[in-house]
Amino acid sequence: MAENKTNWLGTSVKNHSYVLVFLLILVVYGITISLTGKQFSVGHVSSILSAQNTVIVGSMAIGMALVIITGQIDLSVGSALVLTSGVTACVFNMTGNPLLTLLSALACGALLGAFNGVLAAYANIPPFIVTLGTMLIYRSLALWAVREIPQEITGSGSSQFALSRDQEAYEAMRNVFGTGSIKILGFPISFTTILFVLLIALFVVICQKTKYGKAVYAVGSNAKAAGLAGIRVKRIQASVFIVTGLLVGIASFIQVCKIGNITPASSGRSFEMYAIAAVVLGGIAMAGGRGNMLGVLFGALSYTAIDIIIVSIPALSVDIQDTFQGLVLILVILMQSAGPILRQKFARLPRVAVRAD
């Protein structure tokens, strides 16, 4: 009986390690806060949950998780975010219609994702190469567009796309999808955070309860076996890029509403790495076929907390902050790859039987 309880506990820890990672990071965050003379509180946790990086990077990380589960990668999400945000801002400035603006963000994101998916799945080009190329293409198109499109459409000068403040719907969009929040247990939680949590819940259900979700895991575990089982492998491989594009569209809409503008030259830089970091911190295996979508929520929270910790250390130069983020990413992936090897070695050790007299 005791052995069964031990096995259950070990399995639970193994399957939900992302929760322990987040709690460990919270402890470090609390220590960092106390060193500055302040007291760590629940308010700090709610600020992590409502942070811009949690919502925007986290939304893209949901799609990135699906791509990685199928054994692929998408390096273009940061550039796709910029280009889609530019289209979103232009449509709003021309129409003043929030619904059309949202639909244009979703359509643009899905189109960019479909381009990646068709090339990766049906043209048999490695996803790494495809998305490396489109990462350059999408950002350069955004840079070209912001300089060539008239200012009354871009909403700003030759370096930014911006929502036009003259539109009647501007304040409504900004208040709901930008600064809007509601108090839960006395702490303000943004509407966009609630949307992000609902997206996580939706994809947890999709991955665990639907035929499509099970097919995604099957393709990532063994694409050849999945094909023999009747799963249309290429269709699944292409579809996860389209889903990622839709989520990039949602992230773009939130980005434009929260900040009000987008700068193609600098916005979204390294967001693809941040999304991958959130996925890895969430326990999704980079080898594909394994992982819990709920982990993406904790991965996004963990990444944001790490970012806040690094920024809050005065001794660290801004130029070296990405070094620590990169080290955390490498460390987590190392734990993923070394963990199974260590477990196998310990399993081979002879067990000593203890007899109670």
Brief summary of the model shown:
The chain is mainly alpha-helical. Helix content is 73%, strand content 3%. Strand 2 (181-184) and strand 3 form a beta hairpin.
Description:
This protein is mostly helical and 357 residues long. The chain has one domain (43-335): ABC transporter involved in vitamin B12 uptake, BtuC (Orthogonal Bundle). It contains 16 helices and four strands. The protein has helices at residues 2-15, 17-35, 42-50, 52-69, 77-95, 98-122, 127-148, 151-154, 170-177, 191-209, 211-221, 223-228, 233-259, 271-281, 294-312, 321-348, and strands at residues 161-162, 181-184, 187-190, 261-262. Strands 1-4 form a two-stranded antiparallel ribbon. A two-stranded antiparallel ribbon has the order 2-3. The chain is globular.
Which key terms come to mind for this protein?
357 residues; mainly alpha; ABC transporter involved in vitamin B12 uptake, BtuC; two-stranded antiparallel ribbon; 16 helices; 73% helix; 3% strand
**Helix fraction by DSSP (H/I, runs of at least 4):** over 70%
- Which stretches are low in confidence, meaning pLDDT under 50 for 5 or more residues running? none
Distance separating the two termini = 18 Å
Give the domain tally: 1
What's the average pLDDT?
Answer: 85
CATH topology: ABC transporter involved in vitamin B12 uptake, BtuC
> Strand percentage, roughly?
under 5%
Radius of gyration computed on alpha carbons: 22 Å
SSE string:
HHHHHHHHEHEEHHHHEHHH
Structural class: mainly alpha
Number of beta strands: 4
- What is the count of helical runs? 16
Specify the overall morphology: globular
- The CATH architecture is Orthogonal Bundle
Name of the CATH class: Mainly Alpha
Task: List the strand order in the largest sheet.
Answer: 1-4
- Characterize the main sheet: 2 strands, antiparallel
